[in-house]
Amino acid sequence: MITDAIRDEKVLKFKVDYNDVRPHFKAIESEQDEKKLSAAENRQALLHPIRIKEISQYILNNFRQKTHRLHAGAKGFNAMFAVSSVDAAKLYYESFKDLQKDSDKPLKIATIFSFVANEEQDAVGDILDESFDVSAMNSSAKEFLSAAIADYNALFKTNFSVESNGFQNYYRDLAKQVKAKEIDLLIVVGMFLTGFDAPTLNTLFVDKTCATTV
């Protein structure tokens, strides 16, 4: 367990900051009951456009401080953003693009997620095994990921796709670019959260209810 590893000094301690973006969403953000979190109205509240936009803006406003890139020439680090569902990943990805459309130096953002039947992790934050099975992905998720990979291809002059081999190659290249700090922020759902060693990555933003025992 992470707590044991920290106690035994096998891994570095975490500095955790909790942020309630808007008081209106505070109750649902702190909810631990899985049934309540899974209720349609609560899931809709967590994906509310105002909430998504304000969290996105918070990350953009604080990114350089968190990753130690405040000064010109500072090497700094990069970051990962773990969210609860493909729907959330899509909304955040689009929100970041919109908020940065007039920026001279936009953050380079990419996304990746597992192909699981319900395309959402348990509300209490279980981490799923990584899967490259594209057959379980619905058309909406496939369209979104295809667009995100197209953005990635344009950025790095590559030619990846959502098809099985193409996706695995995208996964490998994305891992390489994150480790090389060519990606500033990686949005993930159920991938890259375990067993991924990237010394350049120092910040994990989380918008999901995590299990209390990890």
Mind explaining what this structure looks like?
The chain is of the alpha/beta class and 214 residues long. The chain has one domain: 3-Layer(aba) Sandwich (Rossmann fold), CATH 3.40.50. The chain has 8 helices and 4 strands; from the N terminus they run αααααβαβααββ. The protein has helices spanning 2-7, 26-29, 34-38, 40-46, 49-66, 86-99, 139-156, 164-179; strands at residues 78-83, 109-113, 185-189, 201-207. It has a 4-stranded parallel beta sheet with strand order 2-3-1-4, with helices on both faces. Helix 5 packs across helix 6 (86-99). The radius of gyration is 17 Å and the shape is globular. The N and C termini lie close together (6 Å).
Compute the gyration radius: what is it? 17 Å
Mean pLDDT reading: 79
- What's the CATH topology label? Rossmann fold
Biggest β-sheet, characterized?
A: 4 strands, parallel
Strand content: 5-15%
Helix residue percentage: 40-55%
The run of helices and strands is HHHHHEHEHHEE
Name of the top-level CATH class = Alpha Beta
DSSP, total strands: 4
Shape: globular
Strand order of the largest sheet: 2-3-1-4
Unreliable spans are 117-129
Between the first and last Cα atoms, what is the distance in angstroms? 6 Å
Q: Do you know the CATH architecture?
A: 3-Layer(aba) Sandwich
Protein name: Putative type I restriction-modification enzyme R subunit
InterPro entries: HsdR_RecA-like_helicase_dom_2, P-loop_NTPase, Type-I_R_enzyme_R_subunit
GO molecular function: type I site-specific deoxyribonuclease activity
Domain Restriction endonuclease type I HsdR second RecA-like helicase: 75-209
